[in-house]
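Posting for a labmate who doesn't have an account.
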Amino acid sequence: MQCDYFDAGTCRSCTEMGVPYPAQVARKEQHLRQQLSAFPGIEWLPSFSADESGFRNKAKMVVAGASSAPTLGILDAEGLGLDLQACGLCSPGLTAAFPVLAEFISATGLTPYDVPGRRGELKYVILTESPDGELMVRFVLRSTRQLAQLRAALPRLQAALPSAVVVSANIHPEHKATLEGEEEIILTTRESLPMRLDGLTLHLRTRSFFQTNTAVARELYRQGTAWVDEVSPRTLWDLYCGVGGFALHAARPDRRVTGIEVSAEAVTSARLSAREAELPGTEFFAADATAFVRDAVTMPELVIVNPPRRGLGAELAELLQASGVDHVLYSSCNAVSLAKDLARMPGLSPVKARLMDMFPQSHHYETMVLLKRRAA
């Protein structure tokens, strides 16, 4: 992939930019096998990769500069805006939306936030594109001071960008390096973005997580479902389930599926998807994954885990180790924490593994591992 921003030294966020893509994937495969070298006997499935550019379905753009000429991109070392509207990682639908949003910000008079001066209102614009080409647009504001302006200008935005079916304002009053605040104000009648994958619709609300690479997410769920169906459990838990991607894809009429997610908003989305898909045997609860397992009276036959980068941590890994569960399907975005967690579960052997290149042009990747309980 060729990138003018990288070549000019404007943006160096993509650490693998300039490395031929097959070489990137080979490096990741080598790194993953090194991390899991303590676990012999793994069946390695072929790595999955899709497009090396135009793959991102989500963009978190810092808004800077002046209202008359806002920049959408990142900040430099001095806290000034660097415009990255032509970033080659973003999907065509996102890149087409950026200039429309920049013009809207200017015409509406929304004031970009000045980080060094700690003044202004609009901090970020966060966009997500569905597989159908619809958009969720979130304006992260310092306060509600310009909320009325934004609300009044909504028809103008929808006319210029009809794909923007969900629009919201997130209120983030604190001056710190976090992306969003606790308060979300939905400005449109629609509150969730439908993410249709293989005939199943996952509903994505404004503060819910979804994988940033739609093609790889689709294969991730396909592979997870295939492994679950091979094991054919009657009962299954999906811990850190998000909006229910793994749980809903693996649901079957004769299978009891329970999804656990700390985000109540994500659980609301997952429940809606389960109702629409007519999956009465699939339930979702807002709870801490570790506490849920700790307090459980009985265990399922299979547990899916998809934790954040830090991994499961010692307590949850040790609970799964002692639980007697037959199989664990582990989806990881950090092979280092994955290896630590596997070492904490010596009673569960990794039998299959597959690398999913969710993040081309970076050293990050996703890994799927199927674990099986060792014979007593």
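Reply:
Got it, the structure tokens are right above this. The longest strand covers residues 58-66.
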